[in-house]
Each structure stands twice: as structure tokens, then as C-alpha cells.
Amino acid sequence: MTLFMHEWRLFSRQRLAMIALALLALLTSAALVAGIAGVARQRAGIAAIPAAQAEDIAAVAAYVDRTKDAGSAAYYSFHPTWDAPAPLAFAALGMRDVSPYILRVRALGLEAQIHDGDIFNPELALPGRFDFAFVLVFLAPLFVIALFHDLVSGERAAGRLRTLDALPNGGRALFRRRTGLRVALLWAALGVPFGIAAVVEGVDAGTVAIVLAVTLAYLLFWVALTALAGRFRWNSVTNAATLATTWLLLVLIAPTLANIAINAAIPVDQGAEIALAQREAVNHAWDIPRADTMRRFYASHPQWADSAPLGPEFHYKWYLAFHQNGDESVRDRVRAYRSGLEARDAAGRTLGWFLPSVGVQALLTRLARTDLSAQLAHQTRIRDFHRRLRTFYYGYLFRDRPFAKADFDRAPRFEGRSGG
User: Fold this and answer.
1) pTM of the prediction?
2) Following DSSP, what letter does each residue of 251-285 receive, concatenated?
């Protein structure tokens, strides 16, 4: 312990090294504060849903109650869906930064509603939102390089290396102590602010332990690279330049090229194309006989086939039927789209075994439930809710039942995933 205290005294006299540690701790804290603030805004938005929804539905109900028309209720009523952030979401915002976490849907065609905001591919660690994951994956290696590139070469250049090798507890033991101290300080600069933020956000101890272990492992990987560079006995400037080039390659260039290669190997339509195809199918329904629309609808929904025939006047059951047909017309494209995204995501996770920067970010977003899998699961919950919503309104439309104010309270309610 005395030797480590001595090493700490020597290290604390290195002004630039201490500034580097303080800067890393400051960046980590700033990223965590920004992440917590972002998640807090999302939670506040979700918490405001009930009051806004009650006000909106009250206005629609006042209008619909005059005609008791279920079709008007289905057309004008928006129903909120949301994806509550997990406790760890503040550390790795992932897909929550590019995909809507609140979506108001109607009982009309869902695919156009759900794909208006396209899903981006998060499988690779490319520069993104300034959060803890960004600091760890992209910035922490630079601090490792700054503290370790001249650990041995600096002593050699100063002419002290032979003397240090000859000292009791010197040589390799000395550099192991210095390495251990620097790693511990870097880990603390990252881990202590994260630990405090995790406690504030209610992250469970197991998840905190995993994140801290991943943080340490990632730091050790970069320390190992600096040790490998040191074995070539280059001077400090060459070590720094080589390691900076390695950082650029492993953290930025290789993931970007891999992203391009994966996207080329696994082509996926854009979600906006699905939305456009669905809208085209819906618009086309205005130009074909209504009997053709209803025949197609009843073929896939025979439980409503005994509904009264359409008269010459407009009827919302025809309108909702061709919206349903529009969704079903792009069903295969939706499946292919999701399968393609999942295949890209799987390829990205496989790449993470070879590129630690990719693997670490993928693991953090998985733990934070902000990855592609979480977003697709949220879409599945929206689809399940929309199915119940349509069935609810169909019960009125296809049976010509009046829809009064009290019926609004009987409409299905979305049950979002718990944020815990």
C-alpha cells in the first residue's frame, strides 16, 4: 500500500495527467446529466398523456354524441401509445433519440401511422447522442492513450529506465503498479459518476455491476493496445500517433465501413416506402366498387360478413374496411422489413465480438432497452393495441349500434411496458 501511495504522489504531480482525469470525470458527469434530463423530459411527456387525452376525448365525445355515429368516433379519436424509458436509458439513449416514444394512433390504417417516422439501424457504434455510452466508447480510449502512451517510453527517453529496472520492486512490478493506478483512476472517473446517477435513477445493483465490469474491460482492452505498442520500443510521439490511428480505425472507420457493408449485403426498404404503399392502396379504394372492397375485407374477417349490406350513402364501415385492406396489402413488406432490420441487428452484434467499440455500445443499449429489439417490441405492442381498438369500433360499425358519450370510456386503453 505504501508503494501505491508513493505512485499516487508522483502521479498527482503530473499536472496534465490530473487535468485529463478531471476532464474525463467532467465529461462523464455532463453526459449523465444530459441523459437524465433527456429521460426526465420523456417521462414528463408520458405523464402528461392522461390529462391531454381526457381533454381531447371530451371534445370528440361532445361532437359525436349529437349523431351517435361510431364511425365519427373512430375517425376523430386519437389514442396514445408510449414506450416508458427503462431505468438505465439515461446512460445509452440509443433508438430513443431517433424513434418516437409517444405515438397517437387512430383506428384507421396503422402502417402509415407507424412508419411515418422510420427506424434507423442502431447495430453499429457510430457517433450519436452525447451520453455515457458515447463518452465510454468514443472518448475514454483517448484518455487511456494520453495516460499510457509514454508510460515506459517516457522513462526511456529521460534516461531513467535502467535505474528503475534496478530498484527493489522496480522493473515490471513498478510498471504494473503504475498501470493499475492509472486504470483505477480512469475507471473511477467513469464509474463513480455513473454509480451516483444509477442510484438516483433506481437502476438495480446487478445491472450497475455489469456496466461497471464492461467499463473496466473496455479500458483494459485499450491499455493492452498501449502495452503492445510499447513493446516496439518506439518513442512517445510515435506511440501516441500509432495509438491515435488505431483509435480512429477501431472506433470510427471500421464500424462505418462495416455498416456500409452490412446495409449493402442485407437490403431493407425504408419504412416511409411502406407508409407510401399503404396510402396508395387506401387511396385506390376510392376508385373501385365498394362491393369489391367489402368482399376482400369479409374474406379475411368473416366474423363481420353478416353485417347489413351497404346502401348508397357513405358508411364508415366501408371506410375502415379499406384502411384495413390497405394494411393487409403491405403485410408481407412489413414482415420483410422487420426481418431485414433484425438480420442487420444480428450482423452488428456478431461484429461486436470483433470490434469492442461496437460490442460495448450494443451491450449498453441492450441493457438500457434502447436497442432495435426494444423498438420492434414496442411496435408489436402498438399493433396488438390497434387490433383491439379496431375490433372495438367494428362491434359498433358492423352492427349499426349507436355510439354515445359513455361508450368512449369502454374503448381499449394502451398498456405500455413498465419503465422499471
Assistant:
1) 0.89
2) IIIHHHHHHHHHHHHS----HHHHHHHHHHHHHHG
Q: Which of 381, 420, 372 is nearest to 95 (CA)?
A: 372
Contact (Cβ atoms closer than 8 angstroms) between residue 382 and residue 103: yes
Half-sphere exposure of 358 (CA within 13 A, CB side): 25
Q: How far is CA 64 from CA 60, 68, 83, in A?
A: 6, 6, 30
Cell digits of residue 332: 408481407
**Mean pLDDT of the region 200-208:** 97
Q: What angle do CA 268, 273, 277 make, to 5 degrees?
A: 125
Residues making up the chain, counted from first to last: 420
Most confident of 121-130, 165-174, 258-267: 258-267
Spell out the SS3 assignment of 52-99.
Answer: HHHHHHHHHHHHHCCCCCHHHHHHHCCEEEECCCCHHHHCCCHHHHCC
The whole-number average pLDDT for the span 222-246 is: 90
Residue 123: predicted pLDDT:
41
- Give the 3-state secondary structure of 180-241: HHHHHHHHHHHHHHHHHHHHHHCCCHHHHHHHHHHHHHHHHHHHHHHHHHHCCCCCHHHHHH
User: Using one digit for the tens of pLDDT, what is the confidence trace for 80-110?
Assistant: 999 999 999 999 999 888 888 999 999 999 9
**Residue among 366, 348, 373 nearest 125 (CA):** 348
Partners of 363 in beta bridges:
none
> Which residues face 81 on adjacent strands?
103
Helices (H), 352-411: 356-367, 372-397, 405-408
* Segments of 95-151 assigned E as strands: 102-105
Give the C-alpha separation, 140 to 26, whole Å: 12
Contact 382, 80 (CB under 8 A): no
Amino acid, res. 234: W
Contact 149, 236 (CB under 8 A): yes
CA atoms within 13 A on the CB side of 21: 20
Q: Are 123 and 362 in contact (CB under 8 A)?
A: yes
> With the C-alpha atoms ordered 118, 121, 127, 131, is the resulting torsion angle positive or negative?
positive
Can you tell me which residue has the cell 414506450?
A: 83
